[in-house]
Known about the structure:
The protein is α/β, with parallel strands linked by helices. It has ten helices and 14 strands. It has a single domain (about 10-310), classed as TIM Barrel (Alpha-Beta Barrel), CATH 3.20.20.70. Helix 2 runs parallel beside helix 3 (about 85-95) and helix 2 runs parallel beside helix 9 (about 280-295).
Amino acid sequence: xxKLTWNYTDSYEFMQxxxxxxxxxxxxxxxxxxxxxxxSHPALPETAEQIADSVYYAYQAGASMxxxxxRNPKDLTQGARVxxxxxSLDAMIRERCPDIIINYxxxxxxxxxxxxxxSSLSAxxxxxxxxxxxxMSRFRLKQRDAPLPNPRDExxxxxxxxxxxxxxxxxxxxxxxxxxxxxxxxxxPGGAWVIRNLIEKKLIxxxxxxxxxxxxxxxxxxxxENLLQIVKEFPPxxxxxxxxxxxxxxxxxxxxxxxxxxxxxxxxxxxYLRRGQQFKDNADAVRWAVRICTELNREVAxxxxxxxxxxxxxSVC
Length: 317
């Protein structure tokens, strides 16, 4: 296997890896989110059983990692707020996909307390997302009609999740204590300051898993130039996971695959294969990503290969 970490924007290293081969590409499936549900797409999983089934089919299609949001079974429009809901989901995913890498959110939904956001860590995922900057957005949430459970009217959302240096340090310290690898979510170059702070405080260790989130509101504009600028700010020893939101997913993950990074797809980030045509389900999105990697002569990583790349144990305890 090729060298697993390098400077992704170094011309000579890029040419060397182009000749000798890049490491296998990790495909992460972001199977659902903490906000929209089946009112937006009929295959967007909400219950623990639906999420676990969706993950299984995505795993069969080539995903070696899953990023998931458990939901509150009493109100499926809300994210899970207690450890038991996360543990129940975790058991179902593990039963169907024993070796997949599990990556849970600490972003949650729009109305959680910070304590509720880190309830996911009680399920002991191997990886958990860690937002590096405040998350500000404004959008219209689609009406949810019966017979879907927990119907609601259309809503306009205007909010900010106030991640601060202190909160981020607290989350990172909790992950370190539990042996969970943070997925450092960087939305614009300013997140590099926070990564440096976490390294200086010895709250994270290499290889650093850094995900560029391109196309989210108040993130950097999702252009090749801006993507390259963010990647230039990575510390040595970084593993890069590239995501794109909505119509920006295709160009962003293709850039990531070309440059030797790893990619994230799934119905949390993007519902559409192309204008007017939705993905059938998460597995459909994963097959699309696998095809991109194959066309670029990138091998798609198995879960064991992905574990080696990320410095994770080769088996689940």
